[in-house]
């Protein structure tokens, strides 16, 4: 079926190569992933090593021994930063997978079946959407056992609403297309239609959305850690910010302890956003063209010319 | 670290500290100096000398009957008089009372007041106001602190304008430590606000008292502007005005003193000490706090008959913590010196029991602490049957039912607890104990703490009175249902000794009992107290001089200091 081949990864890659945003985002993310994976090889110090500090050598400025200075406990900021990438990325990836899985399922189901099912699912989505995420996350994290897994679950379970709405609207438009109507007319079952006709056209949106949700999840993890709600032994960028902020980093003028984790977060979030938007341009049939178009630009950008 | 639960005691302590200043620091000064302060007079005509104090808090109310926060008491110490003051060396000195006597049995106390004193509004202050104030505190049971200071009062009378006769229902050794907090209120203002809830609802925005400073302007949460009371009955302040300015956080405070926006800051993070030491015209001082904060590691020992089920007790504490061997092993596995070096950056002393070293003679310095010794700690657990039989690095209960995995919680607003938790996790992990760490909102922490006892281990703190009674009472059996006891500890011998010390009038004998009680607490490993923090404050040298820094306790914001600082000329 052509729908499948259109979104095969070979095609994505070919298109993405021509899209500077996607390429830049991908490179930035790849760099972060490499740093995280090879942290023990790259980091000059072990962030879990025993501490020895005096009042005069905390927040030491950058030097030959410590390229990015030290933090409130005399630890090497560069090493913390490198190891911190691991937690941020792990949380980002896994939480966004959970979010996108839930959001995708709900969105497709609601959009395809319509009627009462859609009503119920979308009202649930609306409710989840209006509940302020952060306070709810704070409460949930407090109620569950403190672990990385729970932080991932909380972020994942709260972050799916945007995906659900996006996927639903895409499904709504796809299911009205002629090939879906024809498939129905020749007696195809719901499952078959969903799998062979709807899902392939929603998938590009899901992929792009996943990458965007990663950045939200990383921001949320940093927020929770910054608020001091994460396990203090789990070294993440948010945690570094928390320690620098609550333990006098600003007074000490230790910009290195505050800026580095911040830059790390910006780097990864920006990477995800660029990649996500680039992929969206490449993949979203509503933005460019899809497998039934005669010409590559037959469907105008944007949603103005919604097909019947 | 000013923790939530310690607020009320901290308040008390600060209040004490502050009260110390009401009079002059000269002990037992004769009341010869009355009327306007002489030292401040030359400042007239010129721009007034204003001391700007920066702090990260602000008073919760100007009504002493309703106040909870320590900042309120700092202001009361400046604006109100009490019969006595607590000095920075821990001694009590005359304030409104110039002399006193007591009966043989210690039940009847007669105080002679300084004559011809006035409130800020010009109304004369007489013994009747003292009687009114004491009765006001005594007759209300809903005052957070004041009620507790009058429990031993039987009756108060005023035979003439300068004599107050206080009769107690029982002779107590720590009367002075309570009287210093009993501020004298003007009867003509407060008499309309004595009934029921009206007493705590009264805003008292005029803050009419008889202390060395009077209120000029007040904006809640922003600033408290005081000016010198030139009619003060002792030597008045040398400066004209004091402004307490609230800053949103400690970093802002540090910046403010660096740039000269304030002349003194009452608190600062230890991590900023090195920075400020290098700053121009700023002097950083550290010392024993007037109101010591005790940081404690609380081990849940509530269970069985002691579980206050009627008060919502859950008592879900890990059973291993009821075993002294486990608590002892944890104490041996706690590297207090490392904690002080890293968390406090050296500005603290190793802790023993809840009674901190800054309580002076009440602190039992003869107790030998459990040394940091991981081998010994491991041995204790091994001998007691806690073995790691499945080789996962975490020991199990002797019957194999559970791992030695403890929940560890602390208030999310604490700046020392996260690092403390991290370091504990490291050394305790080396004796096969695992910690599940989580910061909690202070309210959530209160709800799992006590009397619910729905936790394993907490990091929290207490503020302390100048008298050890309060901190000792926390560990009484009858405090388990009230929520004051955080550990659920119960020891009849300790309970008996508490009653003995509360009645022992001979200070030496009382000290002996109080020391014995600390030995028991240390022997039973009720808490692990990692350290006693020092107070860290800073002042600018280019505007005011004379800050009191050579006393056993440090409190630049105490009346004592603010009474004697003078402009640099």
Automatic annotation (TrEMBL), chain A:
Family stated for the protein in its record: Belongs to the binding-protein-dependent transport system permease family.
Record's GO cellular component terms: plasma membrane
Transmembrane segments: 20-43, 87-113, 120-142, 148-167, 198-219, 254-276
Main localization of the protein described in the UniProt heading: membrane
Membrane protein topology class: Multi-pass membrane protein
Keywords: Cell membrane, Membrane, Transmembrane, Transmembrane helix, Transport
Annotated PANTHER family: D,D-DIPEPTIDE TRANSPORT SYSTEM PERMEASE PROTEIN DDPC-RELATED (PTHR43386:SF1), OLIGOPEPTIDE TRANSPORT SYSTEM PERMEASE PROTEIN APPC (PTHR43386)
Compartments reported by the entry: Cell membrane
Species in which this protein is naturally found: Levilinea saccharolytica
GO BP: any one term: transmembrane transport
Protein name: ABC transmembrane type-1 domain-containing protein
Span of domain ABC transmembrane type-1: 85-276
